[in-house]
Amino acid sequence: MKRLWILFKTEFNVWKHDPITALGGVIPCLFILIAFALLFGGRLSFKIAVVNDDQGEYGQVLVDTFEEVISPLDQAPYYAVQKMDEVQAWQAFEEYRIEGIWVIPEDFSARIEAGDQPEIDMYFMNYNDDRAKNHRIYSAEVLWQFYQTIGQPTPPLSRAETYPLPEMVDWVSIISVGIVLLSVTLGSIFNMFILTYKAQIGKVTLEFGLSPRSLGWVLLPKTVLALLFGLVTGTIFLVIIRVWLGFWPSGYLWAVWVLAGLTAIFWTQVALALGLVARNYMSGAVGSILGAMIIFFIGGGLSMVRANEESVTWVAWLFPNTYAVDPVRDLVLFNTWPLDFWQVLITLLAFASVAVLIGSTFSVRKLRRLG
Amino acid sequence: MKRYLLLLLNEFRLSRTALIVHTIAVLQPTLMYVLMAVMMVVPTFDMRIVQPETELENDLVIAMEEVGSPIGSNYINPILTTQANPEHKQVIEIVHIDGVPTALQSYGFIDSNLVKNLRNRLTAALLVLWNRELGSQAVLVDEHPWLPQDVPYTVYFGMAMIPLAAYLAAAMIGGYLMAQEFEHGTILEYRLCPTSDSLLLAAKITRLLLTGLAAAAILYITLGAITGVWASSAPAVFVILLPLTLIAACIGILAGLLTRSSLPSFLVGLASAFVFWLVGSGFGLAAGFSPIFERISRLIPNTPIIEMLFPYFYFGREVAPNPTAAKLQLAGYCLVLLVMLAIVYRQRVTSMQR
User: Fold this and answer.
1) Tens-place pLDDT, residues A36-59
2) Does B103 sit within 8 Å of A158, measured CB to CB?
3) Per-domain residue ranges for chain A?
4) Are residues B191 and B310 in the same domain?
5) Do B72 and B193 share a domain, yes or no?
6) pTM of this structure
7) CB-based contacts of B210: which residues, under 8 Å, 6+ apart?
8) What is the rounded CA–CA span in Å between residue A224 and residue A111?
9) Of A20, A36, A306, the CB nearest to B88
10) CATH class belonging to A43-149
11) Can you tell me the ipTM of this complex?
């Protein structure tokens, strides 16, 4: 135990010479969070123009309806009607400064009153099918409200919905928890890297290779220290989220640490093994960091895995982050105990155990052979 | 010229010292694109609905199947279930609230974006039923899309990743190799070298430009192979990418010169590449997001680059609000960074400890 403590302190002293690596798990993640907050955190209403040629009153009622139909995404109307004349509107649409134009013909009201198939023309952007889809289904929301406002007969089926919380969790918050896990992952990788890199450039690896004792004594403090730093960076990121978005796991913090910690152990071993395969720790670190970034994007970083399980690629299931991210969201965002906590815990334990077994066996062999 | 070519050749030979870093930096965006293309947002959503028992409930299921694009895919794939439990997503059940037949959609622990998508789809299906009942009283929406077909999101996503590929390779490799010169002590050779700074830097930058464009070419070919969409002029795509790749090369080398350590310079390359990609229209054209986002996005070099690439992938349609200003902006960035690079190189290499 004393030997372990001495090695642990030595590793810590090594780290103290390059403390900037502690930021490796925070800085890129903070930039990514800011980028996503800018992207999806602002008002996302579609900017459109309305050309209202209607001679009656219903055209204006329709225009007023745009402001009344509110999206749950950002609590703002789906459409933001821009004030511009017809010429400006067409020019803006052609140059993609607005998303679309609704043209209400002059006989719109007359046809509504006569029940003679009123029509409107919807010009809209479809450079990607997701935006085209939004135009089509947003228009349904507008018409639904319009029918109610003008007093059409009631629909054959009304609509209602229930949400399990008093307030809806927004998309940026979902992404932010994905980034917390990325932060723990990157924090561990960076620090594992710097500890092994220092050993390499200090030529201590030769002494390791010649050591008569088990190299587990060398690898254990590195792994523990890298894990702790990963958890510290992740916790710093959680505090950032608390201040910025208002979410905090409260009494579940320990459970977040357990799930994130097991995920981090997996990645420390990946960083260690890749560094040794490449015989160049930097290459290993670059590979594992970019690998972790890819896993963030494909393994539920941007949306909930459970709700989109069918579209998660099989590659993502080979990494623990994909399993851990939704239970961590339950704990941080919904402050609820994940129903699949124990199942996920066992899965993550399996990932961590296999990673430690393969990673340490491989690293010990490499160190013994290469010195 | 001969000296320049020899220096350029030497720069390429240096890649042997960091083969894995080169491989990763060049291939990572393509790998990410291939993996993300599989799970990319698709318009068709599975929506669970409790097994219909009445004619009205059956009509709703049929209406759900009708919601979609006339020139693209359907938006709802109804999944019949016996459980009225939303589980991790949602479920629709027909209930009577105050005697009114109602489609009640219950959500699990999901976010507002998913709620929006599910709510809109249900409304669209219910509107089909309502319109049917209204008959000639229903308002007909005559659709006029901007392009003749709804283009899959994977096309835009891939096109917007091409600048990321060029940037990441140039910035990361530039920073890493420059920092290595300090770490390995080979910077002394540059300090003692009788060749001018500009020639040395020109060779370094040219090599990074070619590497960045090679990374972009790999992604471009992958995008074409996956989606079947090719730019109307491939050479134009690579000409457009040149200023961004130059900017990336300058930022990378600057990071290496300023930090003199491979890890922080790698961090600078990585963070700037991903932030520029995300904020620089990586997920959609800047004009389609909030005004604040658009203003910030226009400061990022990726945005004008993507707007210039756009017509080559989208039937010649222009989206750049001011092409001349965008070109001047990119030229300004390149010029400022080249001047900065020359100054920092002189300070860190030529003037120091000669």
Assistant:
1) 888 887 778 899 999 999 999 999
2) yes
3) 17-39+170-370, 43-149
4) yes
5) no
6) 0.86
7) none
8) 74
9) A306
10) alpha beta
11) 0.86
